[in-house]
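ligand=heme C
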Amino acid sequence: MRGSLLLLVALSLSAAPSYYREIQPLLQKHCTGCHQPASKASGLDLTTYSDFLKGGKRGPAFLTDKPDDSITLRYLTAAIQPRMPLGKDALPDSDIAIFRDWIRAGAKDDSPTTTLDTQPTVYLQPPVINSLRFSPDGKSIAVSGNREILIHSIDGKTPPKRLQGKAERILSLAYSMDGKLLIAGGGTPAQFGEVQIWDTNTNTQLRAATLTSDTVFGASLAPDSSRIAVGCSDNTVHVFETATAKELYKIGNHEDWVLSTIFGADSKRFVSVSRDRAAKIIDANSGAFLENANLLKTELYAIARHPSKDIIVIGGEDRYPYVYLLDRARNMKIADDSTLVRRIERQDGPITALDWSPDSKLIAIGSGSPKVNLYNTDTGALIASCTGHAAGIYTVAFSPDSATLATGGFDGKVRLYSTKDCSLTRDFIPVPLSAGAQ
Ligand code: HEC
């Protein structure tokens, strides 16, 4: 009797849906466009098991003892409104049953364990692209992967180099002006944040620093390469010395997640933007707060700077890109909006990615929508819209000659467009997919 009960349990366990093979792909397809680290609708991030478990504003996303009472199922079945996925067709009953059976069977995480060996990551499907950057010589492009950075040649003729590190996720990348260093910011969700410093000549990791208990956002490198700034989900900004990876200081003057940072042209200041709506100007040497660059309007997710001047473009939740001067004329009042140079037209989704072309003529804007828009810096006029992605954009980057725009995001594809007219010059999946992948 006992034996057959065990057998039954074993059978039902083996028949339980797999998080890794079934649940995660469903979440990635239907949910993570809105529930991801850069824009967690209702406080819920569905990109990792640990975040899914943690749940959102309403608490744990599933209850294994009462599967049907789980928030996730109640949203999927419209027991709680608005039904998820928000604004789209309901999931078919068979998919909802996969969630129910998985939760009922204990909601186990069967993802391959993340041991720190040198095994290259195996990809069953293209991962979300959080960041990409051109090398300053224009010959290659660095793309974020899972637990690695992939360096692709622009012509695609040689297989990518794979720079494997500790962090499960790479969320931001930055090259030094001379191209000798590549900086990565990321971490393993709910475990640690990490800043990595790579030698681009040998493709080896020179140094790394871990900080906080969650991934870090928006790593940027000072133009003189001296310092690295990163934003964190504990509302802090940490600044590191590039030469040693030692933390110089941390500041805590934001009131919400800090999602992006950028240094001024002379490396003496940097700006951090946060969901608390502030773009804060900080003295890079001392960490002292100087002033807000903007009049608070909307949650901010992204920032970019003019290639040589202290003019920034910021954007976030309200979908408007704002161009601001970092310096105000002497006799203007604090907290007026006189440093606002321009508000560019509203985008189709919350602004998640910005870049300013090296020739200073163009600003590229990526949002929660699949379209990337290119604007004339001087007039704010739309030049062209780059289409073709299947879902939201997380990163945009100009080539050093400003002729090409690279884009990536939720659909896992890198697309290269001509900045003249947004014609597609190349697209590719930046990771090697294993056999049997869909
Ligand atoms: C288009 C954006 C969007 C998509 C896609 C989406 N959600 Fe949501 N989700 C939201 C918003 C907005 C809320 C807050 C709704 C409210 O309370 O009014 C939310 C709330 C939730 C909550 C409640 C979280 C909490 O604790 O407050 C759960 C659970 C959830 N979504 C699950 C999902 C799942 C599962 C999917 C995919 C099948 C999905 N969502 C797809 C936007 C989205």
